[in-house]
Write a structure and sequence with these properties.
This protein is mainly alpha-helical and 370 residues long. It is built from 17 helices and six strands. Strand 4 and strand 5 (217-220) form a beta hairpin. One of its GO terms (molecular function) is DNA binding.
Length: 370
């Protein structure tokens, strides 16, 4: 029998899952023992049963167990992000038994995170925390996910747009030179800053993607985001061609020597596809980048093109944007200054005329001549 009377006169119940004892508890009355047994069996059959002993495991230990299952399931970049963000779980939450965590506990923790993290990072943190507790439910450490129903702290609900910080041409050359002092592959800085390719698009380039006729250019048709397999498409979903200036051609030509058409154009020292994290470490990016992201090299190319007079429609094509409107929304401030300067000059003339009766300059000239 699963319910038995102990020598002390109390009633002990053991719950089995198949032949395995999964829980036991002692009660003062047989009726209480039987009721608890029925409740546990119903949860077992419904998939909602929680192991009482395992549920007492602190959240911090469950985090360690969860992260140990992630290699091979997620990319190396995602795994690093999960380690970094779950490492920020507050001590108060980390000490709680995983089965005892409430929605209010999670909401308090999110409020603390919002004090030190950007909005996008708080959103990512909540998503990772939710995945952790989904894992806990699957492991029968608790019945429900306490992250469900929580809200981002006030001010964190809106969309946060990362501010771009393109280099000037002089800054780009200086940063590239500093990176090249750390590694010959530091010239990738200049390549990205003058072609506008995304990191994954650069990493997936093959020798045969380099064209010399009718002009030197590269065909961008694939992408290999860090930690992911090569995708036979780009983020924009279509191929594009980007011309190569002489500085970039020299970078490309050196890498084509002795390689077959299907070989990757840019490879790490081991001859494998480049990962963004490894490259940044190799060139000491954090030390030399002047606070910029690698993606700001793409913005650099776009702003250099526009400020040099390349038509927005052409820049759109080179960047792979879906519309020229998108390109202008991002980079209108970097259009050639001639039109803006002309407009400013006309306004100054009009305002100067306002001091003499708020009339256009040509009207003042005619009347004053009478």
């Amino acid at each position: 029998m699963s319910v038995r009377r102990t020598p002390s006169g109390r009633w002990q119940v053991r719950v089995k899952d198949g032949r395995r004892d999964v829980a036991s508890k002692t009660f003062d009355t047989k009726r209480s023992a039987q009721a608890w047994e029925a409740e546990q069996k119903a949860k077992l059959s419904g998939g909602a049963w929680v192991d009482p002993k395992a549920g007492r495991t602190p959240v911090r230990e469950v985090i360690d167990e969860y992260l140990a299952t992630r290699p091979g399931i997620v990319s190396s970049k995602t795994l690093l992000t999960e380690h970094l963000l779950l490492g920020k779980v507050t001590p108060a939450l980390g000490r709680l038994p995983v089965s005892a965590v409430t929605r209010e506990d999670v909401q308090t923790d999110l409020g603390v995170q919002a004090l030190g993290l950007a909005t996008s990072s708080v959103k990512r943190y909540r998503g990772i925390l939710s995945a952790l507790f989904t894992y806990s439910v699957a492991r029968r450490l608790r019945e429900t996910n306490p992250v469900s129903g929580t809200k981002l702290p006030s001010g964190a609900e809106g969309h946060e747009r990362t501010e771009m910080a393109p280099y000037t041409l002089e800054e780009l050359r200086e940063v590239a030179a500093a990176c090249m002092e750390q590694s010959p592959d530091g010239d990738i800085t200049l390549f990205l800053g003058l072609t506008g390719l995304r990191w994954g698009e650069m990493a997936a380039l093959r020798v045969k993607d380099v064209l010399e006729v009718p002009r030197r250019a590269i065909r961008v048709s694939r992408s290999a985001p860090t930690g992911h397999a090569i995708r036979e498409t780009t983020k924009g979903g279509r191929d594009r061609f980007v011309p190569l200036v002489e500085d970039v051609w020299q970078i490309v030509a050196r890498r084509m020597v002795g390689r077959a058409p299907d070989d990757l154009l840019f490879v790490n020292p081991s001859g494998r596809i480049w990962g963004g994290w490894n490259w940044k470490c190799g060139v000491s990016w954090a030390q030399h980048a002047r606070g910029r992201r690698v993606h700001d090299l793409r913005h650099t190319a776009a702003t250099l093109w526009l400020s040099s007079g390349v038509p927005p429609k052409t820049v759109q094509a080179w960047l792979g944007h879906s519309t020229a409107t998108m390109t202008l929304d991002l980079y209108a401030h970097y259009l050639p200054a001639s039109e803006a300067d002309a407009g400013l000059r006309l306004m100054n003339e009009r305002l100067a005329g306002g001091a003499r009766g708020d009339r256009p300059a040509e009207q003042l000239t005619r009347r004053d001549a009478i």
